[in-house]
Amino acid sequence: MERLIDFALSVPDFRRPNKGNIRHRLDDIIILMILGRASGCVGRADIIEFGRHNINRFRKMRMFRNGIPSEATLCRVENGINDLALADRMQEYVEVFHAELLKSHGEREIICIDGKSERGTVMENGRNPDIVSAYSFPTGIILATEACQEKSNEIKAVPRLVDKIDVSRKIVTADAMSMQKEIIDRIRGNGGDFLIELKANQRSLRYGVEDRLKDRSPAYSYTEGPELGHGRIETRTYRIYDGIEIIADKQKWGGNMTIIEYEADTVKKSTGAHTSEKRLYVTSLPTETPFMGAVIRNHWSIESMHWGLDFNLLQDRIKRKSPKSARNLDTIHRIVYSVFSIWKGLRKKRSDKRKGMAELMRHVSMSFTKLMRFLCQK
User: What is the pLDDT of residue 150?
Assistant: First the structure.
């Protein structure tokens, strides 16, 4: 909570303190919005009711000495806060916890990148604002976000997002839209590896790879399953190919790449209907990397995060008139999501420590008992 308050204090105040009647501190309002959203409040009226219900607790924390702000005040704050500054402060807030939770993770970190439309807001051109985010799979924390420009898309936003985070010695996963030379060069240049799906948006590369795979045998392949989940029995097969002779213009993409052919055979348990699906992925990881399939599956964790924003925080149902207000609301929602991930991660870490200490004490007790038996026999 102290770090959350420090985050709220770090957000620059857009109001002029020497003009007007400022009755509420900006950091108090930000904390109210975060705690209200975390408690299941959807609209501004719900947040105000939440604040009034907990006014005594807030005042014990030396907050809201002039009472809970009105709905109009919350609206002005959402539209007035610098959305870029708020997103940058969120990134600074989660970095400390991210580093702490990552210490107990032994493998290379997987960072998933994907965009999400803010369906509750419609811009003048009829489109919904898009927010691209970087999500840390092992910690469950949203590391940073980047908004797409009004007349642009994710292709322009992803390079800026990659520059915001540390991808050195990490694996960046993304969907087919991010299969662009500028994005690949940015990831490689920052010392990271990538795994990206290959589709027809890179037509010559996709079809050239498909044609050459017909005459080649994989460097190795393996099968996972069958596994039962979500009412389906799924068997996954991965075939790994060295891209030296498969990719004709590999110099364009910064060097050699590995090709992964993923095939999923699915049987619906209730009806017995059988479906089969094939996908292609390209990666800078070497062919002997043992966990390719896990990296592919773990990318979908960012879709689960987007689903959590919609299902738990009802993000798409909340309407905002301006992209700036929608971006600020999105940042608040992502802070709430990360707070729960941080809480779960820290609780698990402490639980593991307690289990480790209990296991150590059990071994010490057993060793002590054996030693006493030995001494008694002597």
Answer: 64
